[in-house]
Amino acid sequence: MTPHVEPDPQAGAAVKAADRAHVFHSWSAQGLIDPLAVAGAEGSYFWDYDGNRYLDFTSGLVYTNIGYQHPKVVAAVQEQAGKLATFAPAFAIDVRSEAARLIAERTPGDLDKIFFTNGGAEAVENAVRMARLHTGRPKVLSAYRSYHGATSTAINLTGDPRRWPSDTAAAGVVHFWAPYLYRSAFYATTEAEETERALAHLEATIAFEGPQTIAAIILETVPGTAGIMTPPPGYLAGVRELCDTYGIVFILDEVMAGFGRTGKWFAAEHFDVVPDLMTFAKGVNSGYVPLGGVAISEKIAATFDTRPYPGGLTYSGHPLACAAAVATIHVMEDEKVVEHAAHIGEHVLGPGLRDLAERHPCVGEVRGMGTFWALDLVKNKETREPLVPYNAAGEANAPMAAFGAAAKKNGLWPFINMNRTHAVPACNISEAEAKEGLAALDAALSVADEHAV
Q1: Mean of pLDDT values over 147-158
Q2: What is the CA radius of gyration of the chain?
Protein backbone atom coordinates (compact mmCIF):
# COMPACT_ATOMS: atom_id res chain seq x y z
CA MET A 1 0.00 0.00 0.00
CA THR A 2 1.30 3.48 -0.81
CA PRO A 3 0.36 6.96 0.45
CA HIS A 4 -2.79 8.31 -1.16
CA VAL A 5 -1.41 11.83 -1.57
CA GLU A 6 1.64 13.24 -3.28
CA PRO A 7 4.36 14.48 -0.93
CA ASP A 8 3.72 18.08 0.07
CA PRO A 9 6.38 19.29 2.53
CA GLN A 10 5.02 22.83 2.45
CA ALA A 11 1.61 21.66 3.66
CA GLY A 12 3.28 19.57 6.34
CA ALA A 13 5.25 22.57 7.55
CA ALA A 14 2.03 24.59 7.80
CA VAL A 15 0.33 21.84 9.81
CA LYS A 16 3.27 21.63 12.19
CA ALA A 17 3.48 25.41 12.56
CA ALA A 18 -0.20 25.63 13.52
CA ASP A 19 0.26 22.72 15.94
CA ARG A 20 3.22 24.36 17.63
CA ALA A 21 1.39 27.68 17.88
CA HIS A 22 -1.86 26.39 19.35
CA VAL A 23 -1.96 22.70 20.41
CA PHE A 24 -1.02 21.81 23.99
CA HIS A 25 0.13 18.17 23.96
CA SER A 26 -0.39 15.45 26.58
CA TRP A 27 2.43 14.28 28.86
CA SER A 28 4.95 16.63 27.23
CA ALA A 29 7.27 19.52 27.91
CA GLN A 30 5.79 21.69 25.19
CA GLY A 31 9.03 23.33 24.11
CA LEU A 32 10.92 20.05 23.77
CA ILE A 33 8.67 18.12 21.39
CA ASP A 34 8.60 17.89 17.61
CA PRO A 35 5.35 16.16 16.58
CA LEU A 36 5.26 14.41 13.23
CA ALA A 37 2.72 15.95 10.85
CA VAL A 38 0.58 13.06 9.59
CA ALA A 39 -0.95 13.30 6.13
CA GLY A 40 -2.99 10.10 6.14
CA ALA A 41 -3.43 6.52 7.34
CA GLU A 42 -4.95 3.26 6.20
CA GLY A 43 -4.88 -0.24 7.63
CA SER A 44 -1.66 -0.78 9.56
CA TYR A 45 0.20 2.18 8.04
CA PHE A 46 0.34 5.98 8.21
CA TRP A 47 2.46 8.49 6.32
CA ASP A 48 3.74 12.04 6.60
CA TYR A 49 3.75 14.97 4.19
CA ASP A 50 7.24 14.08 2.97
CA GLY A 51 5.96 10.72 1.68
CA ASN A 52 7.55 8.62 4.43
CA ARG A 53 5.40 5.63 5.31
CA TYR A 54 5.43 3.90 8.70
CA LEU A 55 4.14 0.52 9.83
CA ASP A 56 2.33 1.39 13.04
CA PHE A 57 3.37 -1.02 15.80
CA THR A 58 1.50 1.13 18.35
CA SER A 59 -2.07 0.94 16.97
CA GLY A 60 -2.35 4.65 17.76
CA LEU A 61 -2.32 4.25 21.52
CA VAL A 62 -3.18 0.56 21.32
CA TYR A 63 -6.69 1.21 20.07
CA THR A 64 -6.90 0.88 16.28
CA ASN A 65 -7.66 -2.82 16.64
CA ILE A 66 -9.10 -3.02 13.10
CA GLY A 67 -6.59 -0.56 11.64
CA TYR A 68 -7.09 2.91 10.24
CA GLN A 69 -9.98 3.94 7.98
CA HIS A 70 -11.84 0.65 7.78
CA PRO A 71 -14.44 1.46 5.10
CA LYS A 72 -17.36 -0.24 6.87
CA VAL A 73 -16.84 1.70 10.08
CA VAL A 74 -16.28 4.99 8.26
CA ALA A 75 -19.50 4.39 6.31
CA ALA A 76 -21.42 3.58 9.50
CA VAL A 77 -20.35 6.84 11.13
CA GLN A 78 -21.28 8.78 7.99
CA GLU A 79 -24.68 7.09 7.81
CA GLN A 80 -25.41 7.74 11.48
CA ALA A 81 -24.42 11.40 11.11
CA GLY A 82 -27.02 11.72 8.37
CA LYS A 83 -29.68 9.94 10.43
CA LEU A 84 -29.18 11.25 13.98
CA ALA A 85 -25.84 12.88 14.72
CA THR A 86 -26.38 13.35 18.46
CA PHE A 87 -28.95 12.99 21.21
CA ALA A 88 -29.00 13.28 25.00
CA PRO A 89 -28.18 10.16 27.03
CA ALA A 90 -31.46 9.99 28.99
CA PHE A 91 -33.34 8.73 25.93
CA ALA A 92 -33.48 5.27 24.36
CA ILE A 93 -31.70 5.46 21.00
CA ASP A 94 -31.57 2.47 18.66
CA VAL A 95 -27.85 2.54 17.95
CA ARG A 96 -27.00 3.04 21.64
CA SER A 97 -29.15 0.08 22.64
CA GLU A 98 -27.62 -2.07 19.91
CA ALA A 99 -24.07 -1.19 20.92
CA ALA A 100 -24.84 -2.10 24.53
CA ARG A 101 -26.44 -5.38 23.48
CA LEU A 102 -23.49 -6.39 21.31
CA ILE A 103 -20.99 -5.57 24.05
CA ALA A 104 -22.99 -7.38 26.72
CA GLU A 105 -23.18 -10.48 24.52
CA ARG A 106 -19.39 -10.68 24.55
CA THR A 107 -18.56 -9.81 28.14
CA PRO A 108 -17.99 -12.73 30.51
CA GLY A 109 -20.54 -13.90 33.05
CA ASP A 110 -23.44 -11.64 33.96
CA LEU A 111 -21.84 -8.32 32.98
CA ASP A 112 -24.97 -7.41 31.07
CA LYS A 113 -25.57 -3.75 31.86
CA ILE A 114 -23.43 -1.15 30.07
CA PHE A 115 -22.74 2.38 31.34
CA PHE A 116 -21.21 4.39 28.50
CA THR A 117 -18.42 6.93 28.92
CA ASN A 118 -16.21 8.88 26.53
CA GLY A 119 -13.06 6.88 27.27
CA GLY A 120 -11.18 4.59 29.60
CA ALA A 121 -10.33 7.00 32.41
CA GLU A 122 -13.98 7.99 32.83
CA ALA A 123 -14.89 4.29 32.81
CA VAL A 124 -12.49 3.70 35.71
CA GLU A 125 -13.80 6.74 37.58
CA ASN A 126 -17.36 5.45 37.37
CA ALA A 127 -16.48 1.83 38.14
CA VAL A 128 -14.77 2.95 41.36
CA ARG A 129 -17.73 5.18 42.23
CA MET A 130 -20.11 2.26 41.71
CA ALA A 131 -17.97 0.00 43.92
CA ARG A 132 -17.78 2.57 46.72
CA LEU A 133 -21.52 3.20 46.65
CA HIS A 134 -22.30 -0.53 46.47
CA THR A 135 -20.12 -1.39 49.46
CA GLY A 136 -20.21 1.82 51.47
CA ARG A 137 -16.44 1.57 51.82
CA PRO A 138 -13.81 4.18 50.84
CA LYS A 139 -10.56 2.44 49.82
CA VAL A 140 -9.47 0.96 46.52
CA LEU A 141 -6.41 -1.27 46.02
CA SER A 142 -4.45 -1.12 42.78
CA ALA A 143 -1.11 -2.40 41.56
CA TYR A 144 2.21 -0.76 41.02
CA ARG A 145 3.19 -1.08 37.34
CA SER A 146 -0.28 -0.11 36.15
CA TYR A 147 -2.05 2.63 34.26
CA HIS A 148 -5.75 3.43 34.69
CA GLY A 149 -6.14 6.92 33.21
CA ALA A 150 -5.39 10.59 33.80
CA THR A 151 -8.53 11.84 35.56
CA SER A 152 -8.53 12.42 39.31
CA THR A 153 -9.24 8.96 40.75
CA ALA A 154 -7.80 7.09 37.77
CA ILE A 155 -4.42 8.82 37.99
CA ASN A 156 -4.20 8.08 41.72
CA LEU A 157 -4.95 4.43 40.97
CA THR A 158 -2.17 4.39 38.37
CA GLY A 159 1.06 2.82 39.55
CA ASP A 160 3.60 4.35 37.18
CA PRO A 161 5.43 7.72 37.48
CA ARG A 162 2.73 9.64 35.63
CA ARG A 163 0.86 9.50 38.95
CA TRP A 164 3.48 11.35 40.95
CA PRO A 165 2.73 15.01 40.06
CA SER A 166 -1.00 14.52 40.77
CA ASP A 167 -0.86 12.10 43.71
CA THR A 168 -2.38 13.76 46.78
CA ALA A 169 -2.18 10.56 48.84
CA ALA A 170 -5.75 11.35 49.85
CA ALA A 171 -7.82 9.53 47.23
CA GLY A 172 -8.33 6.37 49.28
CA VAL A 173 -5.91 4.41 47.06
CA VAL A 174 -3.49 1.78 48.36
CA HIS A 175 -0.94 0.23 45.99
CA PHE A 176 0.40 -3.32 46.13
CA TRP A 177 2.77 -5.50 44.11
CA ALA A 178 1.18 -7.64 41.41
CA PRO A 179 3.03 -10.65 39.94
CA TYR A 180 5.94 -10.05 37.56
CA LEU A 181 8.19 -13.10 37.66
CA TYR A 182 10.98 -11.62 35.53
CA ARG A 183 11.51 -8.90 38.16
CA SER A 184 9.85 -10.61 41.11
CA ALA A 185 9.22 -8.55 44.24
CA PHE A 186 8.80 -11.85 46.08
CA TYR A 187 12.08 -13.61 45.19
CA ALA A 188 10.08 -16.24 43.33
CA THR A 189 11.73 -18.55 40.82
CA THR A 190 8.63 -20.22 39.32
CA GLU A 191 5.19 -19.07 38.22
CA ALA A 192 3.62 -21.14 41.02
CA GLU A 193 5.79 -19.41 43.62
CA GLU A 194 5.04 -15.99 42.15
CA THR A 195 1.29 -16.64 42.27
CA GLU A 196 1.36 -17.97 45.83
CA ARG A 197 3.55 -15.18 47.18
CA ALA A 198 1.78 -12.38 45.30
CA LEU A 199 -1.58 -13.54 46.66
CA ALA A 200 -0.16 -13.81 50.18
CA HIS A 201 1.16 -10.25 49.85
CA LEU A 202 -2.23 -9.02 48.64
CA GLU A 203 -4.09 -10.74 51.46
CA ALA A 204 -1.66 -9.26 53.99
CA THR A 205 -2.26 -5.81 52.48
CA ILE A 206 -6.02 -6.33 52.83
CA ALA A 207 -5.58 -7.40 56.45
CA PHE A 208 -3.41 -4.44 57.40
CA GLU A 209 -5.63 -1.91 55.58
CA GLY A 210 -8.80 -3.37 57.15
CA PRO A 211 -11.04 -5.45 54.87
CA GLN A 212 -14.10 -3.53 56.07
CA THR A 213 -12.60 -0.32 54.59
CA ILE A 214 -11.86 -1.68 51.10
CA ALA A 215 -14.45 -1.16 48.37
CA ALA A 216 -12.58 -2.62 45.40
CA ILE A 217 -9.46 -4.14 43.96
CA ILE A 218 -8.76 -2.99 40.41
CA LEU A 219 -6.33 -4.72 38.07
CA GLU A 220 -5.56 -4.52 34.39
CA THR A 221 -6.32 -8.08 33.29
CA VAL A 222 -3.04 -7.95 31.37
CA PRO A 223 -1.16 -4.75 32.26
CA GLY A 224 -0.59 -2.67 29.13
CA THR A 225 1.75 0.33 29.11
CA ALA A 226 3.38 -0.93 32.31
CA GLY A 227 4.84 -3.92 30.50
CA ILE A 228 2.32 -6.54 29.29
CA MET A 229 3.01 -8.84 32.24
CA THR A 230 0.65 -11.75 31.62
CA PRO A 231 -0.50 -12.91 35.07
CA PRO A 232 0.71 -16.38 36.05
CA PRO A 233 -1.77 -19.27 36.30
CA GLY A 234 -4.10 -19.02 39.26
CA TYR A 235 -3.40 -15.40 40.18
CA LEU A 236 -6.57 -13.71 38.92
CA ALA A 237 -8.67 -16.60 40.22
CA GLY A 238 -6.98 -16.10 43.57
CA VAL A 239 -7.80 -12.38 43.56
CA ARG A 240 -11.40 -13.25 42.72
CA GLU A 241 -11.46 -15.59 45.75
CA LEU A 242 -10.01 -12.93 48.06
CA CYS A 243 -12.62 -10.44 46.89
CA ASP A 244 -15.39 -12.93 47.58
CA THR A 245 -13.97 -13.74 51.02
CA TYR A 246 -13.80 -10.11 52.14
CA GLY A 247 -16.82 -8.67 50.32
CA ILE A 248 -14.63 -6.57 47.98
CA VAL A 249 -15.70 -5.60 44.47
CA PHE A 250 -13.35 -6.99 41.79
CA ILE A 251 -12.78 -4.59 38.89
CA LEU A 252 -10.91 -5.65 35.77
CA ASP A 253 -9.59 -2.89 33.53
CA GLU A 254 -9.79 -4.12 29.93
CA VAL A 255 -9.41 -0.69 28.31
CA MET A 256 -6.29 -1.82 26.47
CA ALA A 257 -6.54 -5.62 26.62
CA GLY A 258 -10.15 -5.90 25.47
CA PHE A 259 -11.82 -6.38 22.10
CA GLY A 260 -9.51 -8.89 20.50
CA ARG A 261 -6.13 -7.53 21.57
CA THR A 262 -5.10 -10.76 23.35
CA GLY A 263 -6.77 -13.13 20.90
CA LYS A 264 -10.01 -13.26 22.90
CA TRP A 265 -12.85 -10.76 23.01
CA PHE A 266 -11.71 -9.97 26.55
CA ALA A 267 -8.49 -11.05 28.23
CA ALA A 268 -10.45 -12.34 31.24
CA GLU A 269 -11.49 -15.29 29.08
CA HIS A 270 -7.90 -16.59 29.12
CA PHE A 271 -8.06 -16.92 32.90
CA ASP A 272 -11.68 -18.08 33.34
CA VAL A 273 -12.41 -15.18 35.70
CA VAL A 274 -15.52 -13.00 35.89
CA PRO A 275 -15.16 -9.63 37.66
CA ASP A 276 -17.96 -7.60 39.23
CA LEU A 277 -17.21 -4.62 37.02
CA MET A 278 -15.15 -4.37 33.83
CA THR A 279 -13.99 -1.20 32.12
CA PHE A 280 -13.48 -0.92 28.37
CA ALA A 281 -12.72 1.68 25.68
CA LYS A 282 -10.14 1.87 22.85
CA GLY A 283 -10.80 -1.25 20.75
CA VAL A 284 -14.58 -1.16 21.25
CA ASN A 285 -14.75 0.97 18.10
CA SER A 286 -11.07 1.17 17.16
CA GLY A 287 -11.01 4.72 18.48
CA TYR A 288 -12.84 6.12 15.47
CA VAL A 289 -15.09 8.17 17.79
CA PRO A 290 -14.32 8.41 21.54
CA LEU A 291 -16.18 5.73 23.53
CA GLY A 292 -15.67 3.76 26.71
CA GLY A 293 -17.78 2.18 29.38
CA VAL A 294 -18.35 -0.04 32.37
CA ALA A 295 -19.86 -3.50 32.07
CA ILE A 296 -21.83 -4.09 35.27
CA SER A 297 -22.77 -7.33 37.03
CA GLU A 298 -26.31 -8.06 38.17
CA LYS A 299 -25.57 -7.55 41.87
CA ILE A 300 -23.90 -4.16 41.32
CA ALA A 301 -26.61 -2.99 38.95
CA ALA A 302 -29.29 -3.99 41.47
CA THR A 303 -27.85 -1.47 43.94
CA PHE A 304 -29.21 1.26 41.70
CA ASP A 305 -32.61 -0.23 40.84
CA THR A 306 -34.43 2.20 43.16
CA ARG A 307 -31.49 4.34 44.21
CA PRO A 308 -30.32 6.88 41.63
CA TYR A 309 -26.78 6.41 40.37
CA PRO A 310 -25.06 9.77 41.01
CA GLY A 311 -23.05 10.02 37.82
CA GLY A 312 -23.42 10.79 34.15
CA LEU A 313 -21.87 12.38 31.10
CA THR A 314 -23.29 14.72 28.49
CA TYR A 315 -22.07 12.51 25.66
CA SER A 316 -22.66 9.10 27.28
CA GLY A 317 -23.48 6.65 24.50
CA HIS A 318 -23.04 9.25 21.77
CA PRO A 319 -24.80 8.02 18.61
CA LEU A 320 -21.75 8.45 16.36
CA ALA A 321 -19.52 6.56 18.79
CA CYS A 322 -22.08 3.80 19.23
CA ALA A 323 -22.52 3.48 15.46
CA ALA A 324 -18.77 3.03 15.19
CA ALA A 325 -18.89 0.38 17.93
CA VAL A 326 -21.70 -1.56 16.25
CA ALA A 327 -19.86 -1.51 12.93
CA THR A 328 -16.53 -2.44 14.53
CA ILE A 329 -17.98 -5.43 16.38
CA HIS A 330 -19.64 -6.66 13.17
CA VAL A 331 -16.35 -6.24 11.28
CA MET A 332 -14.51 -8.19 13.97
CA GLU A 333 -17.08 -10.97 13.75
CA ASP A 334 -17.33 -11.07 9.95
CA GLU A 335 -13.58 -10.85 9.33
CA LYS A 336 -12.68 -13.09 12.31
CA VAL A 337 -10.36 -10.42 13.68
CA VAL A 338 -10.21 -11.94 17.18
CA GLU A 339 -9.25 -15.35 15.81
CA HIS A 340 -6.73 -13.69 13.50
CA ALA A 341 -5.07 -11.87 16.41
CA ALA A 342 -4.69 -15.20 18.22
CA HIS A 343 -3.19 -16.77 15.09
CA ILE A 344 -0.73 -13.92 14.49
CA GLY A 345 0.39 -14.06 18.10
CA GLU A 346 0.89 -17.81 18.15
CA HIS A 347 2.43 -18.31 14.72
CA VAL A 348 4.11 -15.03 13.73
CA LEU A 349 4.71 -12.44 16.45
CA GLY A 350 5.42 -14.84 19.32
CA PRO A 351 7.92 -17.04 17.46
CA GLY A 352 9.44 -14.04 15.66
CA LEU A 353 9.99 -12.03 18.84
CA ARG A 354 11.45 -15.03 20.66
CA ASP A 355 13.84 -15.51 17.76
CA LEU A 356 14.93 -11.88 18.12
CA ALA A 357 15.50 -12.46 21.84
CA GLU A 358 17.83 -15.37 21.10
CA ARG A 359 19.90 -13.31 18.68
CA HIS A 360 20.04 -9.94 20.44
CA PRO A 361 21.92 -9.50 23.74
CA CYS A 362 19.72 -6.50 24.61
CA VAL A 363 16.48 -8.53 24.79
CA GLY A 364 15.97 -9.93 28.27
CA GLU A 365 12.44 -11.27 28.04
CA VAL A 366 9.56 -11.55 25.57
CA ARG A 367 6.02 -11.50 26.97
CA GLY A 368 2.55 -11.45 25.49
CA MET A 369 -0.25 -13.02 23.49
CA GLY A 370 -2.34 -12.15 20.45
CA THR A 371 -1.22 -8.74 19.18
CA PHE A 372 -0.10 -7.65 22.65
CA TRP A 373 3.65 -8.14 23.23
CA ALA A 374 6.55 -6.54 25.09
CA LEU A 375 10.32 -6.88 24.81
CA ASP A 376 12.13 -6.13 28.06
CA LEU A 377 15.45 -4.59 27.01
CA VAL A 378 18.46 -5.04 29.28
CA LYS A 379 22.12 -4.17 29.61
CA ASN A 380 22.92 -7.68 30.74
CA LYS A 381 20.83 -10.82 30.34
CA GLU A 382 22.34 -12.41 33.44
CA THR A 383 21.76 -9.52 35.85
CA ARG A 384 18.59 -8.32 34.05
CA GLU A 385 19.68 -4.71 34.57
CA PRO A 386 17.31 -2.57 32.46
CA LEU A 387 18.80 -0.94 29.37
CA VAL A 388 17.88 2.45 30.89
CA PRO A 389 17.01 3.32 34.51
CA TYR A 390 13.43 3.44 35.72
CA ASN A 391 11.70 6.58 34.41
CA ALA A 392 14.90 7.67 32.63
CA ALA A 393 14.99 10.97 30.74
CA GLY A 394 17.53 12.97 28.76
CA GLU A 395 20.97 11.45 28.40
CA ALA A 396 20.06 8.54 30.69
CA ASN A 397 17.46 7.49 28.14
CA ALA A 398 19.83 7.74 25.16
CA PRO A 399 19.93 3.98 24.39
CA MET A 400 16.15 3.77 24.03
CA ALA A 401 16.07 7.00 22.06
CA ALA A 402 18.64 5.57 19.65
CA PHE A 403 16.60 2.39 19.32
CA GLY A 404 13.46 4.39 18.55
CA ALA A 405 15.21 6.51 15.94
CA ALA A 406 16.56 3.39 14.24
CA ALA A 407 13.09 1.82 14.13
CA LYS A 408 11.59 4.91 12.50
CA LYS A 409 14.45 5.08 10.01
CA ASN A 410 13.49 1.55 8.98
CA GLY A 411 9.83 2.49 8.51
CA LEU A 412 8.50 1.19 11.85
CA TRP A 413 6.73 3.40 14.38
CA PRO A 414 7.55 1.78 17.76
CA PHE A 415 5.76 1.81 21.10
CA ILE A 416 8.43 2.60 23.71
CA ASN A 417 8.00 2.88 27.47
CA MET A 418 11.02 3.06 29.76
CA ASN A 419 13.27 0.07 28.93
CA ARG A 420 10.66 -1.74 26.84
CA THR A 421 9.39 -1.76 23.31
CA HIS A 422 5.93 -3.17 22.74
CA ALA A 423 4.73 -4.92 19.60
CA VAL A 424 1.06 -3.92 19.54
CA PRO A 425 -0.03 -3.62 15.90
CA ALA A 426 -3.60 -3.72 14.62
CA CYS A 427 -5.32 -7.01 15.46
CA ASN A 428 -5.95 -7.58 11.74
CA ILE A 429 -2.34 -6.99 10.65
CA SER A 430 -1.40 -9.41 7.88
CA GLU A 431 1.33 -12.01 8.27
CA ALA A 432 3.43 -10.18 5.68
CA GLU A 433 3.07 -6.88 7.55
CA ALA A 434 3.90 -8.52 10.88
CA LYS A 435 7.06 -10.02 9.36
CA GLU A 436 7.95 -6.61 7.93
CA GLY A 437 7.68 -5.21 11.45
CA LEU A 438 9.84 -7.97 12.89
CA ALA A 439 12.53 -7.26 10.29
CA ALA A 440 12.53 -3.56 11.21
CA LEU A 441 12.71 -4.44 14.89
CA ASP A 442 15.65 -6.74 14.15
CA ALA A 443 17.60 -3.86 12.62
CA ALA A 444 16.69 -1.43 15.41
CA LEU A 445 17.62 -3.89 18.16
CA SER A 446 21.11 -4.07 16.68
CA VAL A 447 21.47 -0.42 17.72
CA ALA A 448 20.28 -1.23 21.25
CA ASP A 449 22.76 -4.13 21.36
CA GLU A 450 25.56 -1.57 21.32
CA HIS A 451 24.53 -0.62 24.88
CA ALA A 452 24.28 -4.21 26.16
CA VAL A 453 26.88 -6.70 27.35
Answers
A1: 93
A2: 22
